[in-house]
Design brief:
Blueprint (H helix, E strand, L loop, with lengths): L1 H11 L21 E3 L12 H5 L5 E5 L9 E7 L8 H5 L5 E3 L14 E4 L11
Antiparallel strand pairs: 1-4, 2-3, 3-5
Length: 129
């Protein structure tokens, strides 16, 4: 039995890819890394549609640290370690601030490297003469 298994394996040939030397093209519709576009995100205006549909709670709201009651969130935090690439948040976002990419390499050396925070930067003040 073992001999027949080895003989069958030798006839089949090499079935593995040459990754990472040769990167494979992902098929149409592949859901890889989730990306946040902070300039389109409405979290500062109270939008939390994506966090409500995120089943593994990979998306969360970040509030001001002043501890004021009723404070609005100022940014959106994405935890890649919890994200299952289901795409529910992408379809729910009203302004398409979330998008799925074909990138599939999510290796990190620490847990903190798997966090992504979307925060709008205030516009630079124009100096008046």
């Amino acid at each position: 039995m073992l001999f027949s298994w080895v003989r069958r394996g030798l006839r089949t040939g090499v079935l593995t890819t040459r990754y990472p030397q040769v990167r494979e093209q992902m098929p149409e519709g592949f859901r890889g890394r989730l990306m946040l576009n902070a300039s389109l995100c409405l979290v500062e205006q109270g939008c939390d549609a994506c966090t409500q549909v995120c089943l593994p709670h990979a998306l969360s709201l970040v509030f001001q640290e002043d501890g004021a009651v009723g404070s609005k969130p100022h940014s959106l935090m994405l935890d890649y370690a919890r994200c299952i690439q289901c795409g529910m948040c992408v379809t729910t976002c009203p302004l398409q601030a979330l998008a799925m990419t074909a990138e599939y390499e999510l290796a990190a050396s620490s847990r903190e490297d798997l966090y992504m925070c979307a925060t709008k930067r205030p516009d630079a003040e124009v100096e008046k003469e």
